Amino acid sequence: MNGLFRIIKFNSTMLISLFFIISVQSCANHSPKNVTFSEKKTSPLKLYDQIKNTYTIVPRDRIEILTPVKKKNESVLALNNSLAFELIDNELYSRQEIEVNPYGEIYLPLIGKIKISSLTVTEANKLLLDSYKKIYKKPRVFLKVTKYTGYDQKNKVAIMGEVIHPGIYFFQHNTSILKTLSMAGGHKNTAELKSIIVIKNGHTKTPQYIKINFQDILNGFAMKKNIQLSAGDIVYVPKSYIAKIDNFVDLFMARIRPAAQTYLDFYYAINARATTPILSP
């Protein structure tokens, strides 16, 4: 698969507990295409989007597509009223979520079946755009993956703290901290990026703690700091600067790691009872 992730969202009770714990601290068989960040002033959101667009689509992924339509009634009948409509520059577009079938195909009104598996998000978007150009003069197409099925349950990392979607992520191969945060939706405005903590081998009795100035990575100054993560690692994005890592270690050992492990134990216990693999939360 692609080294990118699938998120397992925390239930509401666990989220409340984790956010409480974190607030105390405030004193991802296909290889992803290479992405280079040469512009030092590229915004974080653009970097995160670039990373996510290198994901290679596989069967059973779920995607959201915004496509042009000719007539509202025609499209509604075609998809059994499953569309949402919106106007963009006085042009009518439909927004829909579609699951890629086992053959790697999706069905779209006016286009029919089209295979998008084995393509990156960027490549799939271009394929759809070229298809709609046969119908419209200047169409626009927007595609994003909303559920990733390219994952390996043996490889997991926890993303905690000031990120958009904290939780447990599964990935196929070792991957970087930048890719990890991109799949978690990026960081919040309240994040202190100059002291992100990476806990290597966080599930063991002797984890290794690494403090990273993630702001330098986003600015393109220190891509060497974009370290590789592996199974069992934990990434913590704080709300305030962590001056002494020893203080964080005490908090992590006492509260954060047990809470994360409790959730993981619960999740795997539920999965063990299932007769078929659970592909979505």
Q: How do you describe this structure in short?
A:
One of its GO terms (cellular component) is cell outer membrane. This protein has 281 residues and is α+β, with helices and mostly antiparallel strands.
Folded structure, characterized:
- The protein is α+β, with helices and mostly antiparallel strands.
- The protein has two domains: 5-54 and 151-273, Outer membrane lipoprotein wza domain like (Outer membrane lipoprotein wza fold like, Roll), CATH 3.10.560; 62-147, 2-Layer Sandwich (wza like fold), CATH 3.30.1950.10.
- Helix content is 30%, strand content 25%.
- It is built from seven helices and 14 strands.
- It has helices at 12-25, 44-52, 72-78, 121-132, 177-183, 214-219, 245-273; strands spanning 5-9, 62-68, 84-88, 91-99, 105-108, 112-115, 142-147, 156-161, 167-171, 175-176, 196-200, 208-212, 228-229, 234-237.
- The strands form four sheets. A six-stranded mixed sheet has the order 1-9-8-14-11-12, with helices on both faces.
- α2 (44-52) packs across α5 (177-183).
- The two termini are 20 Å apart.
- 33% of the residues are buried.
- Mean pLDDT is 70; it is low at 1-42, 72-82 and 266-281.
- It is found in: Cell outer membrane.
- One of its GO terms (molecular function) is porin activity.
- Residues 156-237 form the SLBB domain.
- It holds the Pfam family Poly_export.
- InterPro entries: Poly_export, Poly_export_N, SLBB_dom.
